[in-house]
Amino acid sequence: MNFFEKLKSLIPTSSTKKVALKGVTWLAGDKIFRLALSMFTGALVARYLEPQKYGMLNSLTAFVALFGPIANIGVNSIILRDIAAHPEKERKIVNGAIILKLIGGTTAFLLALSIALFSGQQQYQPLLVIFASFHFLFYFVETLETWFLAKHDQKKPVVAGQISFIATSALRVLFVLFDMGLPAILLTYTFDSIFGGILVYFYARKYLNFRFTQVVFDKKFTKEMFSETLPLIFSGFGSTLYTKIDKVIMPWLTSAYVIGIYSAATRLSELWYFIPFSINTVFSPLIAEAKTKSPEIYEKRIRKSFIIINLVTLGIALLTTVTGYYAIYFIYGEQYLAATSPLLIHIWSLPIFSMGLVVDIWLLNQRLQKIQVARTFITAALNITLNIILVPRYGAVGAATATLISYTYPSFFANLIDKRTREIFWMELQSVLPTPKNITLIFEK
After folding, report:
1. For residue 353, how far is the Cα from the chain centroid?
2. Over 90: is that where the pLDDT of 404 sits?
3. Mean pLDDT over residues 79-92, rounded?
């Protein structure tokens, strides 16, 4: 097969390829649009707040994010998996997810506020925590967005999210122009989540014939769903802990200025996370379908996910390594140039983290969710220890180094250590490099 024939084979002919391409196009297109707009508003906010207050903003949002897995209660992955595999139960699945998220969101909001009250940390002022965590009370509406995704209908939640994002971004710019301060800017992030959820609900009313008044509480089914999501809650908490804990504990280890510098670096690095998340969101139900049909197709789709994600994220890491200094200067200005070194380190955590997302899909379909719990908490402990050692001495560079080292454990080395997951480790290892065999696999049907 020559080069042009290979390119032609990328044009979707099978229904699976068409679904995957359509899903990736909508999700990636949405994220690219958000990336462009958030680059502008994010730079405006960072320049307006300056490193010290910008560090406060990011520490606060990281603290609140710790409670996100409780609000999300781990049901999104279950919805994506089970509606694809058991479409006849979709209403029962959605009803159970909404009830669980109502309970989880309320619990998360109250926990965040309670811990902030007793933390004794000035950056975690209770009023600011309320502003940052109020959207947890509306997390149950997010269930409808995941429902659309499980049905391979990415367009409607994407459009709703874009309308909300444009409106709240414009509001954020106005707050900066009128010098309304950190609390007002913080509120705009909460408004984005709430307004987007309301729009998705109207789409669900129209296209899915859904009404919240029709939600039925099936005690037995909801209890069964909760028992299955419980490991995912702990896993999600552990995962959020090791991805956010650096900014959460840094107020006790260093100055708000250093946190602001580190936050500028991680913002540019984490902007690219939408790519592996978009690919995984689309391939997750397709992999779940393959699990029930054919072991060969199941393994092939997992390997394809690894190969595609590795190719894209390694390319991004290389590009950022070359252009990082200029990106910092252009976006944030001279006052943030110290963020260059931590950026060049942190960006290499992207391909490592991305492989872990595919591993998570495999663990879910193998019914090995409990493994994730131990791994994520070990990783969190590793990240905390490395931050305590490195941040006081090396500042933002130390925090970036701690992140890079700690990410390698759950995404890679833990799979080698555990004999139950050694199979996925060899898949990862074989998918790292763009060998001719791997490239050929991408073009296969």
Report:
1. 10
2. yes
3. 78
Q: Which of 24-33, 34-43, 332-341 has the lowest mean pLDDT?
A: 24-33
Q: What gap in Å lies between CA 436 and CA 66, rounded to an integer?
A: 42
Percentage of residues in the chain having pLDDT higher than 90: 34
Question: How confident is the model at residue 194, as a pLDDT?
Answer: 87
Pairwise CA distance, residues 301 & 290, whole Å = 8
Residue that has been written with the tokens 């707040």 in this structure: 49
Dihedral sign, CA of 316, 318, 319, 322? positive
CA proximity to 275, closest of 31, 77, 16? 31
147-184 core/surface letters (b: 16 or more CB in 10 A; e: else): bbbbbbbbbbbbebbbebbebbbebbbebbeeeeebeb
| Phi/psi of residue 367, nearest 5 degrees | 60, 40
Mean pLDDT of 32-59: 88
B/e letters for 240-255, b = 16+ CB within 10 Å, e = fewer, are: bbbbbbbbbbbbebbe
Query: Please, where are the H alpha helices in 208-294?
Result: 219-253, 256-270, 274-291
**310: its two tokens:** 């590795």
Distance CA 263, CA 396 (A): 9
Measured between alpha carbons, how far is 288 from 365 in angstroms, rounded to an integer? 7
